[in-house]
Automatic annotation (TrEMBL):
Residues 1-21 form the signal peptide. Gene3D superfamilies: Periplasmic binding protein-like II. Keywords: Signal. It holds the Pfam family SBP_bac_3. Residues 23-245 form the Solute-binding protein family 3/N-terminal domain. The lineage of its organism: Bacteria, Pseudomonadati, Pseudomonadota, Alphaproteobacteria, Rhodobacterales. This is Amino acid ABC transporter substrate-binding protein. One of its GO terms (molecular function) is ligand-gated monoatomic ion channel activity. Residues 23-244 form the Ionotropic glutamate receptor C-terminal domain. GO terms for cellular component: membrane.
Amino acid sequence: MLKPLFAALALTAASLAPVSAETIRVGMSGGYFPFTFTEQDKLQGFEVDFMNAIGEVTGDEIEFVTMSFSGQVGALESNRIDTIANQLTITPEREAKFVFTQPYVYDGAQVVVREGNEVGINSTDDLSGKSVAVNLGSNFEELLRGLPNAADIDIRTYESNIEQDVALGRVDAFVMDRVSTAQVIAKSPAPLEQAGQPFSEIRNALPFRNDEAGIAMRDKVDAAITTLKENGKLAEISQKWLDADVTRPAGEAAPAN
């Protein structure tokens, strides 16, 4: 009498299991607070929780691979990782190489200066004649070099520690995304402040290689992101790390749960 019941339970379990569970190798720097950083030898942050939540939906293993931000695109191209979770912004140049999921963070580029703003920067026009730090290979480097007054700005690229050099007065400002700069200023003892308003809206998403396997993985992960948006999990992760929901465009209402 019990055999049919066990058979039914086994069939149910099999039907709930992922069709083809696999390992998703995720590249990240581990040095971009509060999105991906290491504290007490533990890799953590928004991106870590986000990718683990995706794995819970798809049934896949998530393997984090830490490396410098500037090396992540090359690692994705050479199949050493499957995607990048490091607040990568969608740009036409990147869309020509990769296929992206839907955006999962909406943000803006923000100028940050030493507290007191003695250098007098209140807009991108004020960056002329100033030294400005930016992470090497980031979208913010592209945005700076695309400004009308870019030729008048001393743009300095960094692999890490740009906050400290601004706090110590070695450079006049740095540019990063609005939400992470707010968290850095709130949690760091370094004397820093945001200068002016964000000067560009950016949409961040996960890139995958533009081949059959990459597109299939993108589609699976994209469906998981939709689930996380609809069930409120993505907004919950955003509130945990950023004290705000930045997972949908400004003015778009959250779905009713």
